[in-house]
Amino acid sequence: MSQLSGKFGIVFGVANKRSIAWAIAQAWHKAGAKLAFTYQGERLKENVEELAGTFGPDTLLMPCDVTKDEDIARVFSEVGQKFGKLHLLLHSVAFAPKDALEGQFVNTSREAFRIAHDVSAYSLIALARGAAPLMTEGGSIVGMTYYGSEKVVPHYNVMGVAKAALEASTRYLAYDLGPQKIRVNCISAGPVNTLAARGIAGFTDMLKHYEAHAPLKRNVLPDELGATGTFLASDGAAAITGQVIYVDCGYQIMGM
Ligand code: NAP
Predict the structure, then answer these.
(1) SS3 for the chain, per residue?
(2) Which domain holds residue 221?
């Protein structure tokens, strides 16, 4: 029997075929999970429709801006109607205004700070709250984070602070939801060439830097993030919660 057969999941954050969310969704699907998808706006609908459609014509696909409580409520109501229950949730969503990802962190505006935290960190709390009542058989919530939460990565700026909030939220959610057998973890991925990543000034240099300095002398592959996502979703990770798992070819252990 496949690792995730009989499990229902929802995936937030597929923008296109390069999205980390798509790599993890494909792995979850391959492991036997039945998935629903959300997309932020009409702009992305066609992309996500095409990708999600490869899992079957009846794949549930819903618009959801994670900064809107009414969108989140509608999504979980539709998931409840279609699946009746939920086991897996992938949070692979982040955003900060472009000018906050260039130049100096000291110049971060109040509004850029608010937006980055609302979209990239608070949303995990709101989505976990929406999903928990449907996770009646327990569940696994997985978020995506990055090392800029614990060390200074030039240009990552306010997103690093938002990722620190996301990781701390992961721990508090794990504590709250543990009694319901709902686990909450983050994957801290090394750099992957996606739409969001290209918004970070100097991203190409980051890829080269990891290749040169990570113990494995290469960058992480999307399939490898999919495999870790599947492990965290599976019973093999039944005793793992509140953790940040680095999938970065070992870069995080280096001091120099
Ligand atoms: P991506 O393909 O651009 O995915 C980011 C997703 O977030 C997009 O689908 C985007 O939709 C969505 N999003 C932004 N604002 C939203 C909102 N208000 N409501 C709903 N969705 C919203 O890039 P990615 O690299 O795969 O990013 C996925 C996650 O991995 C993020 O949390 C990112 O920080 C994390 N991560 C990425 C890397 C990397 O190097 N790529 C490394 C570590 C962690 P729109 O396109 O419409 O904005």
Answers:
(1) CCCCCCCEEEEECCCCCCCHHHHHHHHHHHCCCEEEEEECCHHHHHHHHHHHHCCCCCCCEEECCCCCHHHHHHHHHHHHHHHCCCCEEEECCCCCCHHHHCCCHHHCCHHHHHHHHHHHHHHHHHHHHHHHHHCECEEEEEEEECHHHCCCCCCCHHHHHHHHHHHHHHHHHHHHHHHHCEEEEEEEECCCCCCCHHHCCCHHHHHHHHHHHCCCCCCCCHHHHHHHHHHHHCHHHCCCCCCEEEECCCHHHCCC
(2) 8-253
Using a 6 Å cutoff on CB, does residue 47 contact ligand 1? no
Q: Cα of 145 to ligand 1 centre, how many Å?
A: 10
122 is catalytic: no
* Residue 1 CA to ligand 1 centre (angstroms): 32
CB of 37 within 6 A of ligand 1: the answer is no
**How do residues 212-238 score in pLDDT, each as one tens digit?**
999 999 999 999 999 999 999 999 999
Q: Would residue 3 count as lying in a domain?
A: no
CATH number (domain holding residue 153): 3.40.50.720
pTM over 0.85: yes
Is 104 a member of any domain?
Answer: yes
